[in-house]
Write a structure and sequence with these properties.
By secondary structure, this protein is an all-alpha fold. The protein has a domain of 46 residues. Helix content is 54%, strand content 0%. The longest helix is centred in the middle third of the chain and has 25 residues. It is rod-shaped.
Length: 70
Amino acid sequence: MTTLSIPSQTFGARKTATGPSLWARARNFASDHRRRAADRAIERYVAGRRWSDSCERDIDELIARGDGRF
């Protein structure tokens, strides 16, 4: 008597991925890290200051340059 094997359930069968790929997770982590770093830098820059148009322009310029140092 032979056993019937179902191809999708045999050893070594390709499994479908669930969730984002490794590269997508790494990209998401990097972008989240940059966003959090920018948020922290803005909080440090604005701390103790009044929010104004010039403050917003300064922050925009600093972020656009990519210094990361406020």
